[in-house]
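User: Hello! My lab partner asked me to get a predicted holo structure for this protein. The small molecule is pyridoxal-5'-phosphate, SMILES included with the sequence. Please write out the structure tokens.
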Amino acid sequence: MRYLSTRGIAPELNFDDVLITGLARDGGLYLPMDWPQFSSEDLRAFGSLSYPELAAEVMRPFLGDTITRDVFDNLVEATYSEFTHPLVAPLKQFESNIWLMELFHGPTLAFKDYAMQILGRLFDQALLARGKRTTIIGATSGDTGSAAIEACKDREAIDVFIFFPKDRVSPIQQRQMTTVEADNIHAIALEGTFDDCQDMVKALFNNLQFRDKYALSAINSINWARLMPQIVYYFWAGVSLGLNERRLVFSVPSGNFGNVFSAYAAKKMGLPIEKLIVATNSNDILTRFFNTGTMEIRGVQPSISPSMDIQVSSNFERLLFDLNSRDGASTNKILEMFRSEGKFSVSEETLMEARRIFDAVSVSDVDTLERISTTFKEKGEILDPHTAIGVEGAYRFASSASMESDLSIVSLACAHPAKFPDAVQKATGANPKLPVHLKDLLTRKERLTVLPNSIQHVSSYIAANSRVEVT
Ligand SMILES: *Cc1c(COP(=O)(O)O)cnc(C)c1O
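Assistant: Hello! Below are the structure tokens for the protein in complex with pyridoxal-5'-phosphate.
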């Protein structure tokens, strides 16, 4: 399988180079040249597979010959055997046509573990095979950082530097990053905001000399290898519900558009998906796009679902590229305009095409709390605020004119409620408990470095602590 950049200039690469490169050198994102296809017969045969077996089947066509079958199967098996639910991604029925798929049974309690745990292992594998090391840097507002740290701790070929805004992440999120005892992990509280953390990462990447010297790499969802493992659970949901004459709708709480793009990939690969509901909080840039055809930046408003407080959804570029018949030059032009003017529009025809697949809703904090409360009263289930936004999207869709009787809606539970105790407490009065393996999280010893928002300080810290051999 070959991969091409959404900007059309960077060279085509194999899977392992895409993995290690992350962002294409032309500033674009990598996508597979074509989508692997599964027939309805293939899908029926998937019915007897465990989650790791299905995961290996769905991902294998993306890898080409960059990793042997045995090695990959074992890697996938090892990954998901560490998840705390035997089904890995269990489904719960809420209504005759609404299900919840729980994606918080990994080590850091958010769906990001499902991909990051694979990514950490793939990275180590690819680097050791080449006798190389890498320095991973990343900015986080909470969930990505902890998932990356947990996935990369003690891996031989990787050093990890995660920047989070000092005093601006929740105590649980912070402790998930700072209580991991591993010499290759560096949790850095930057004296600044999340945007400062992101700018810092960009500045480090833009210093090409520094980037090459310390072999910098990225683990956020611009990396194709973050999206690939997410495709699996959409197939899992379809196969678990039985695909006979069933058409699927997924409701996906969205920020960076990574998770829902994986659903789009599953549709392209043959899963009978009728609609994808892009569910956002009051930061509704995506919802406004799907309603009007215009993508326009407005300021970020803090909400009770902080992992979706996002202004620019980086993975939207992948959809835009597809909607533009995979024309890199025109994708580039639109995105240049977006950068300079904070706004772009697509044609009526392109919008119609997008709306055939996507539906979008924006859910306020008030409605989010209301959904958590109702679900607790009626179903006895505690939802985290991100999950509640997806569930609200599912109920709104179920009561809309688009809802036909043979549709099944699966809403994604993106985080464990104990990660966001304040909102949950406010809505239900209940205090969600952390799972056993994290019970003592709030009393563990923290290891973190506080650094000023200064590129000089940060670069020298990385230079002093990265194990990449400087030549
Ligand atoms: C990352 C995250 C999201 C947003 O997912 P995207 O792939 O960025 O759209 C939603 N909910 C939770 C809990 C998250 O951690």
